[in-house]
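The material for today's practical consists of a large collection of protein records. An example says more than a description, so a record of this kind follows:
***
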Amino acid sequence: MSETVSFGYEQVSPEEKTRRVGGVFSSVASNYDIMNDAMSGGLHRLWKDHFVKRVNPRPGEDILDMAGGTGDIAFRMEKAGANITVSDINPDMLAVGMDRAIERGVDTLVWSEQNAETLSFPDRHFDAYTIAFGIRNVTDIPKALREAHRVLRYGGRFFCLEFSTVEWPGLAEVYDVYSHKLLPKLGKVIAGDEDSYRYLAESIRKFPPMPEFKRMIGEAGFVQTKVEPILGGLVAIHSGWKV
C-alpha cells in the first residue's frame, strides 16, 4: 500500500483517511436514507432490490453484509431465511441499524463492529459476502478484497454494489455537475453537513473504473468475475466466486 491514499481529492495518510471516513459516516448516520436519496434521486432503493436478487440469498446460508451498518441490505436478505451478520467499522451506523431492527421487529440479525481490512471471522466461514456503497470508503481496498476471499467458503460468492464511472455521453456531464455542485449544497440544506457530502461525491470520482475494479477482484483470488453496469455505469454490480 502507498504511503498516502485518496480522501476525495486529497492525498492523506492511511490512518488519516480511516479517521476522516469514520467522521463522515458518524456525521451522516442519522440521515442515511436522506443521503442516499440525495445521491441517487431515490433510485438506490431499486438498485438495492436488484442487487439482492443477484445475490439470491437462500435459507440457512451464512452471509456477511459488510459496511451494512444501517441494515438496508440485510433487511432485504433476511426475508429469504439466510443467517445474516451485519458488519460495519462505524458504531454509529450500526446503532442506526439496530434501532431499525427493533422498530421492524427483526431479531434474527447478528451485528458486529468490524474493519473490512482485518475481519475477526475465521477462514471459510460464510457462503456469501455482500458490500453495498461501502468499498470505495475502505482505506486499503485490495486488502479488504483479500479478507472477503478468506472468510468465504469454497463455492462462496462475492457481490459488491457501488457507484462507478458513467459511460453514457451526456449523462456523465450532467451527473458531474450534480454531484460536484449540487450535492454538497443539498447536504448543507438537508443535513447541515456540506463537507461530508462533498467527500462522498469526490470519493465516487476517485473509485477505480469498472474494468480496473474487476481486475482487482480477480487479483484477490476470485474467479468468474463479472460486472453489471446500471444506467451506463452510474452504479455497477461486481461479482466473483471462490473456488
